[in-house]
Amino acid sequence: MYVIDARHFLNDKGDIGPVRGPARKLAEFVTAVVAHESNFDRPESPGPVCFKCRKSPVDTAMTEAQTIVWLCPRCAIDGSVSNWEGTFWDLSHGSPSD
For the chain, N or C: smaller number of CB within 10 Å? Predict the structure, then answer.
């Protein structure tokens, strides 16, 4: 299980910090998971494609503690994301342009 603090992937301006490589791919996946699960107005849609197997969309959910959890039904990789609130990818209060 991946236990991820979303802010560890962000720079001082709040953008994705890693420029390239595996850290960048994981950061892009984590931010996509946050945007997907925090968008409460979204119609039923599949989650982002798993960063590990790259073949299946992940299932996402929100815990009572406001932690986002995800699971890939194909490769069974899973994780949780904390400290996502207030990031650019937090869509719980509408889109950034709202």
Answer: C
pTM across the whole model: 0.89
Q: Supply 89's token pair.
A: 């990818």
3-state helix, strand, coil in the chain (%, to 5): 20, 25, 55
Where in the chain does DSSP place strands (E)? 2-5, 59-62, 68-71, 78-82
**Which are the contacts of 95, defined by CB distance < 8 A and separation ≥ 6?**
none
Average pLDDT over residues 44-49: 90
Q: Please report, for the chain, the start and end positions of each structural domain, with discontinuous segments joined by +.
A: 2-82
Which residue carries 């960048």 as its tokens?
24
Q: Please provide residue 47's backbone torsions phi and psi, each rounded to the nearest 5 degrees.
A: -75, 180
